[in-house]
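ARCHIVE CARD
CATEGORY: sequence design from structure
SOURCE FIELD: tokenized fold
FIELD CONTENT:
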């Protein structure tokens, strides 16, 4: 045996990889299958090798099982490596210097990043999920493997220092992790009833996410799904954890899947009743009405499904009006949902069947807002044919508010639509540049007379953005070097809706140029001159002797309002001549004594 092994090693070492591949391919293609089988059967691990040969040789099977391990030994090796990957992540939890401790600034308290840990594990769980049936078949794992993982995680969280407060974080698996837990429990339960009771007990003190898919239940026989349905109905009366009317309860998600098979009418009724909790429930409802050719009901539920999708998915918009005649289905997300696209298609289909031509105009607009919310030119093309519609004004107001959210972000919810941004939107559809100019000019005159709350208010955000847009790259303020640098400083987007430059920024600048907004340059500078004193922090109110902001604004004052600068500079020279850090900061701008 040793001689044979040495011969094989010497033979392989004497060939290049390409030569060895050619040798094996020629050998397999020359010898008849029965002779190959005779050779395989003389080997110690003949069963594994024969299985591997059959899998490779069967191209159809190879395509279908391309990701499946070829032999039991190889399968166990791959499975073990996945379990080790999970164990490594769990092992890192509890280490205050580990990968899953997040700290912003050096003075901030470190925190356990349970979400990143769950996401990293979920990437591995996704690979585990399709292997679970074979793991169960080979009996290579204990019954509580995934529940033990949850236990180990919670134990390790307790190892973080008490001052981190990590024990108050409620750890939950992500989508694939939850599916692994439930599928493994399903495979290891002796009956459907024992699965339900075991899961209720297991998750009394552990969390599962709400965004998992119980799709593996649909592969079961109708008989088992019927049994699951009836047991959940019965047990929901005994266990408060089984809340079948709450879409936030994972038992409801499982129940709804079994209900589809056990009682299709009840399934549709549940979906119809709970669209307000889960918008995707509207899909089977309107599809059923379309199937029945009841287009009136189908149209109603298409509209409701889309309105709820927007309300539930983009819930950063407060008090969102689900009436499509008074709101727009525009989102800050670049990722589009195929289910929403399909709902728009079916909504149009129903309106065409019902000859609702005015409604089709509205749907076209809403679909455009969903598909390209920042493409003002495309939106304008959809809006113009609808100018005579009763709902046109409300849609315009909703669009204005959306653009303001995109432009000002953190100030948006308190910003009135009657501002220069709103008037710019009016200009897009009315093509009246003079009206935009006059309204903006009047605002620059009147709003600057408001009390001194201006500095951190909405008016400042609007003035700053208008100045940045109109004067940011204008050579007329090249002499105002400090002011121009301030106006063109990089903005920290509070919500970070997109990291890339927003498309609506480009359109806003283009339409400002088309409206000849540059005519407002002098008025904008006058507004700054009238309010510049509000930005200068008195040295006596500065914390920790950091006078950089005071110095910067005094330098800007010198550029925009020399008389005011002389007055303030003289006061500081008289009152604060001993504050060396102040004059050191002023010296950086060349305005020291």
């Amino acid at each position: 045996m040793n001689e044979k092994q040495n011969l094989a090693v010497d033979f392989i070492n004497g060939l290049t990889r390409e030569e060895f591949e050619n040798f094996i391919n020629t050998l397999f293609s020359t010898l008849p299958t029965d002779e190959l089988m005779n050779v395989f059967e003389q080997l110690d691990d003949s069963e594994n090798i024969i299985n591997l040969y059959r899998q490779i040789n069967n191209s159809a099977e190879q395509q279908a099982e391309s990701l499946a391990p070829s032999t039991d030994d190889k399968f166990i090796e791959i499975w073990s490596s996945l379990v080790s990957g999970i164990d490594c992540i769990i092992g890192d939890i509890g280490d205050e210097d580990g990968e899953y401790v997040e700290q912003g600034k050096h003075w901030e308290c470190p925190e356990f990043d349970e979400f990143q840990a769950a996401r990293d594990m979920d990437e591995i769980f996704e690979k585990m999920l399709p292997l679970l049936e074979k793991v169960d078949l080979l009996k290579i794992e204990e019954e509580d493997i995934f529940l033990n993982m949850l236990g180990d995680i919670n134990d390790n969280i307790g190892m973080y220092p008490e001052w981190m407060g990590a024990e108050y974080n409620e750890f939950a698996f992500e989508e694939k992790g939850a599916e692994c837990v439930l599928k493994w429990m399903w495979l290891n339960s002796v009956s459907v009833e024992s699965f339900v009771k075991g899961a209720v007990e297991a998750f009394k003190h552990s969390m599962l996410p709400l965004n998992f898919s119980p799709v593996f239940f649909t592969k079961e026989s109708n008989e088992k799904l019927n049994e699951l349905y009836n047991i959940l109905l019965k047990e929901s009366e005994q266990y408060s954890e089984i809340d079948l009317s709450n879409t936030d309860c994972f038992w409801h998600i499982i129940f709804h899947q079994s209900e589809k098979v056990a009682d299709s009418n009840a399934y549709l009724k549940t979906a119809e009743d709970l669209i307000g909790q889960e918008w995707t429930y509207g899909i089977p409802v309107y599809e059923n009405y379309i199937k029945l050719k009841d287009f009136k009901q189908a149209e109603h539920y298409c509209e409701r499904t889309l309105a709820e999708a927007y309300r539930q998915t983009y819930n950063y918009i407060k008090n969102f009006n689900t009436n499509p005649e008074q709101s727009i289905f525009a989102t800050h997300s670049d990722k589009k949902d195929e289910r929403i696209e399909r709902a728009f298609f079916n909504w149009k289909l129903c309106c065409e069947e019902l000859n609702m031509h005015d409604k089709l105009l509205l749907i076209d607009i809403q679909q455009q807002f969903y598909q390209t919310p920042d493409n003002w030119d495309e939106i304008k093309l959809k809006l113009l044919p609808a100018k005579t519609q009763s709902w046109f004004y409300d849609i315009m107001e909703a669009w204005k508010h959306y653009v303001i959210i995109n432009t000002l972000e953190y100030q948006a919810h308190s910003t009135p639509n009657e501002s220069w941004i709103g008037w710019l939107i009016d200009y897009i559809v009315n093509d009246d540049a003079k009206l935009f100019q006059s309204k903006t000019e009047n605002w620059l005159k009147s709003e600057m007379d408001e009390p001194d709350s201006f500095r951190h208010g909405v008016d400042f955000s609007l003035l700053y953005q208008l100045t940045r847009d109109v004067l940011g790259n204008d050579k007329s303020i090249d002499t105002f070097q400090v002011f121009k640098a301030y106006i063109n400083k990089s903005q920290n987007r509070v919500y970070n809706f997109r990291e890339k430059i927003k498309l609506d920024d480009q359109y806003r600048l283009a339409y400002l140029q088309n409206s000849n907004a540059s005519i407002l340059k002098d008025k904008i500078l006058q507004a700054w001159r009238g309010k510049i004193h509000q930005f200068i922090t008195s040295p006596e109110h500065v914390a920790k002797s950091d006078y950089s902001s005071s110095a910067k604004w005094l330098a800007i004052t010198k550029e925009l309002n020399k008389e005011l600068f002389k007055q303030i500079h003289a006061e500081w020279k008289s009152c604060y001549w001993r504050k060396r850090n102040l004059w050191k900061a002023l010296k950086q701008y060349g305005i020291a004594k």
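CARD ANNOTATION: Residues 72-92 form the longest helix (21 residues). Confidence is low (pLDDT under 50) at residues 59-67, 492-501.
SHELF: design records, drawer C
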